[in-house]
Amino acid sequence: MDLSPKIPSGAIQEKWDRHRFEMKLVNPANKRRHRVIVVGTGLAGGAAAATMGELGYRVDCFTYHDSPRRAHSIAAQGGINAAKNYQNDGDSIWRLFHDTVKGGDFRSREANVYRLAQISVEIIDQCVAQGVPFAREYSGLLANRSFGGAQVSRTFYARGQTGQQLLLGVYQALERQIKAGTVSMHNRHEMMDLIVVDGKARGIVTRNLVSGAVETWLADAVVLGTGGYSNVFYLSTNAMKCNVTAAWRAHRRGAGFANPCYTQIHPTCIPQAGEYQSKLTLMSESLRNDGRIWVPKQSGDSRAPNDIPEEERDYYLERMYPAFGNLVPRDLASRRAKDMADRGHGVGPTGYGVYLDFAEAIQRLGRDGVAERYGNLFDIYERITGEDPYGVPMRIYPAPHYTMGGLWVDYDLMTTLPGLHAIGECNFSDHGANRLGASALMQGLADGYFIVPNTIGNYIARNPVEPVDVDHPDVRRAEDEVRGRIDRLVNLNGTRTVDSIHRELGRLMWDECGMSRDAAGLRKALAQIPELRQEFWENGVVIGDGDRLNQSLERAGRIADFLELGELMCRDALLREESCGGHFRQEHQTPEGEAQRDDANFMHVSVWEYTGANSEPVEHREGLEFAHVPPSTRSYK
Amino acid sequence: MAATGALLVLFVLGHMAGNLKAYQGASKFNAYAEFLRDFGAPVFGHGQFLWLARVALLAAVLVHIVAALQLSRRSRLARPVRYKKTPHEELTYASRTMRWGGVILLLFVVYHILHLTTGTAHADFVAGDAYRNLVVGFQAWPVSAVYMVAMIALGFHLYHGVWSGFQTLGWDNPRFAPYRRAVAGAIALLVVIGNLSFPIAVLTGVLRV
Amino acid sequence: MKLTLHVWRQDGPDAKGRFERHEASDVSEHMSFLEMLDVLNQRLIEAGREPIAWEDDCREGICGSCGVVINGKPHGPQRATATCQLHMRSFSDGDEIWIEPWRAGPFPVVRDLIVDRSAFDRIIAAGGFIGARTGSAPEANSVPVSKEDAEWAMDAAACIGCGACVAVCPNASAMLFTAAKVSHLNALPQGEPEGLARVLEMIEQMDGEGFGSCTNTGACEIACPKEISIDVIARLNRDYLRAMRAGTA
Ligand SMILES: Cc1cc2nc3c(=O)[nH]c(=O)nc-3n(C[C@H](O)[C@H](O)[C@H](O)COP(=O)(O)OP(=O)(O)OC[C@H]3O[C@@H](n4cnc5c(N)ncnc54)[C@H](O)[C@@H]3O)c2cc1C
Ligand code: HEM
Ligand code: HEM
Ligand code: SF4
Ligand code: F3S
Ligand code: FES
Questions:
Q1: Whose CA is nearest to atom 2 of ligand 4?
Q2: Do residues A429 and A459 make contact, with C-beta atoms less than 8 angstroms apart?
Q3: CA–CA separation, B132 vs B105, rounded Å?
Q4: What is the pTM assigned to this prediction?
Q5: Cα–Cα distances in Å, from A63 out to A37, A42, A187, A237?
Q6: ipTM here
Q7: How many Cβ pairs closer than 8 A exist between chain A and C?
Q8: How many CB atoms lie within 10 A of CB B125?
Q9: Is residue B202 in contact with ligand 3, taking CB distance under 6 Å?
Q10: Is A585 a catalytic residue?
Q11: What Rg do the C-alpha atoms of chain B give, in angstroms?
């Protein structure tokens, strides 16, 4: 597996410019003759499709949603980072670069991160020109806030709907190209497999989710912008349909999968209420700016929160991290909450929750002051839980939220499979072992608007491909395999719903490969997942046929892939004998219980190669170097 | 729709204002009726301008009705399958009754013309004595009742119609926007009260032959 | 609690639909409406019966995927709440609940409670964008936008494209959806140059899709989960008349 990142030479500030200069360009008149497939219409995929359409390529764009506007990017609330330094508070491209590398716990590639910080500035320009209604000050100029513990205010936002507004900008640009005829949009089409001809990605096989038709689409290059895989945990903050199928199928066809165990757990979600729960709702992290987190000092204390006197409350984050208090990074806040719950201090009906209390803030700011800052979040909370957070402390608990791992890509965002590019959350690139708040939106748009439309041209210009047609044996084979798989799925006639199997997988992953992991637990999971997979294929049930809209079939296919991915995640977590970012191994912690990195042995990306259904995957490594941001240990004491 | 509606609103307002002359007595009122016929002289002969106005009015009503029919047709086509449960309470009563209210108004106008203009539907019609025709007409309580029902229907139609007109004409200037509902209500109320007063005044004996 | 559900079932756009009766027992008030249906579906699957098809994704009221008519109300009884955020607290034991899809000609039923809303995409494609090529944008702060305009634009831009406005409108008009987008873009200096063409093209597309005409009944703003105000419709009409005048002048 070739893991050369192909980082351009030169000073880090000049790499991207130089690279663009050295790229081979596709003759504008010829662009029309090149087809590109883009799967996904989130910030990454949608921006890429629209921009490549503008450039003149013939783009076929796919989503399983009924409209490109539904992609999960729509749900992002908090904001998007950019090194504009509009606040004159010392921000710069260099600082954003620095923060992102450090935030990623020194497990990302410096050159990529630098480019991301550089492009961040252009993203805001682009979005404003498209009419994204970012928050503004009375001067009419753009407003910023500080986010996720950053020491500068560099986050741009549109109320609590930043992801929505950015995605609508993308969607509108995409619709414009659809109208112009440069992009053919295929809604309600799910990518089921990747077509590889002569070692190059040349197309995809889709299932039309309405008619059930299995179809083949061919192109010169394929771009995946298919999002993250947090739903392997069953309960996560991701949308119900988020899944790993596209990336996983590409992996099975030869694309290396990098750092699958790097997952981010978000500390402020509304806890699970019951067995029937279908997903978890994120509450913006900003709540931690004024809310105080506590649990009862006495374990198993079942009194109502307001009956617990002040001296019997443990404000554990303030106690353990006096400098940062409730504002410690996501991974710390999450892990500490889990510790508390595991030791019996958890609150709420399930015991998996901690209090986030605004009583003090209400005293300080007044009820109206709190309402002004957090009113809409309080409303969301009340709508879901039926409790009034002005009177009773909120209950929160961590939940899976984002996956830093994904398809390995080089500097050009190309996977190990020539022609196959991966952008947005579905690649592994810029966040290392932990993503900073408000950086995923930035990365998705950087990849989609500014990077891949350029690098794809370079790839196409340098790699002329022979035309293939649908009768090519490799094409036929991919299509037949998809049909075979659908047949197998619709013929599942057991007694157990596939969702119940998914729930079981999720619980296992959460317990053993969630917020903290240890070798014994991971081994246990590695033993149980194959059994669960067997249960799925022997005892699962799918109702109905493949030749029409069948949601039970759609879900089954996605769960089948999660059942394979879960195993790889555990394998990766087991192999990484250190703690870094979102990956916390019980065995590797400081005496105070903080994560302990092992830079000597693990300063690398683990990239997994698929070797077949019945053989173990092989790990390859891309070494990382930190020439500009010297590795240091995080400290929030 | 908005244009013809606006014309009709102006007519109704003017018509009501004219009818208020009834309170000044028979001669003033009949003079007013006569004045309508002489209006526009010497360019127009006796009754000519009135006829012109009638034609314009008729045209407005026809266009208004045709537009209403088109709207209804579009709506029907746009929802080929109806709901089992219809979300009624989402709508104001006035907006929900525009179409039936319109039909009532149409029937009323026809009756009203037969009643007070041609006298066909009048028990004791004296051509040229509009005042007497009116008072005698309203003295029959069923006639008054018909008028009163129609005026209430008109009120609703106007309330929604005027507000709707503001909306359709895009009058959303922030200085004016908050008062649009109130203005529509005031116009409707004015017309209803003004027009209701006639049958009531006759029945209570305030207006007499 | 125990509930009686009457759920619309329809195999495809041309198939005849019918209501199917189901009893839902052990419904917890903490469940969301869709979780209540999830549980029902699991039971149906276990019994070897076709699960009910509906659309959802984010379950946070932001993607606009979900939406059914519950007892005659799009998105159910709670104001400013999408179907996915509706919780069973809004119902009581023994309630009878009728669940129907959006009903509008331009929204043909795909299956059961799923309708095809791609007409909305085509309305956006007709002009609901600002044609700023990637890379061509000026410095973001070079054009100030008054806070007032920015807030107005954001209010309108909050639309999630769910279609409840069409579902509730007695004319099945898509005016609120269309006007929200026109209002959002036309309120911004960046959207100004294409403003008049935008409104004409979007209206033309909207009419062409077969939506009814707005008669300003205002039902849509009450059903809208994002509380988009019908003020946006007045704004659209204003721009429309301006565009007509500009066109004929
Ligand atoms: C609740 C929440 C809040 C967040 N808040 C923030 C925030 O404030 N700031 C921030 O920076 N980040 C935030 N994030 C993270 C961020 O939103 C995501 O990482 C990012 O939007 C992912 O974008 P994407 O384009 O990569 O993928 P997505 O937006 O997930 O899009 C994936 C696309 O791929 C399509 N697709 C997938 N598989 C297939 C297939 N097999 N066939 C066809 N189509 C397929 C889907 O239909 C979809 O169109 C948040 C995430 C969540 C869950
Ligand atoms: C003669 C019979 C009439 C019929 C059949 C009729 C019918 C209608 C209908 C169907 C509408 C469409 C609005 C909707 O459906 O909600 C309407 C609107 C309206 N009508 Fe009438 N109407 C009649 C008479 C009148 C009269 C006499 C007036 C004036 C006093 C009037 C004033 C209006 C106004 C102002 C509107 C609103 C226009 C808009 O929305 O822009 N109508 N009418
Ligand atoms: C109680 C209220 C009303 C009274 C007392 C009233 C009175 C009259 C009278 C006296 C005339 C005859 C005038 C003449 O022939 O010189 C008349 C004519 C007429 N009225 Fe009314 N009217 C009332 C309400 C209305 C309303 C609400 C409408 C319309 C919606 C209306 C429409 C007409 C029309 C169209 C004519 C015929 C005009 C013509 O062609 O000469 N009236 N009305
Ligand atoms: S305007 Fe409101 S109801 Fe209509 S599509 Fe938008 S969010 Fe849904
Ligand atoms: S409900 Fe329909 S009539 Fe107009 S104001 Fe809303 S679109
Ligand atoms: S499921 Fe996304 S809005 Fe309801």
A1: C224
A2: no
A3: 24
A4: 0.96
A5: 11, 9, 5, 20
A6: 0.96
A7: 216
A8: 17
A9: no
A10: no
A11: 19
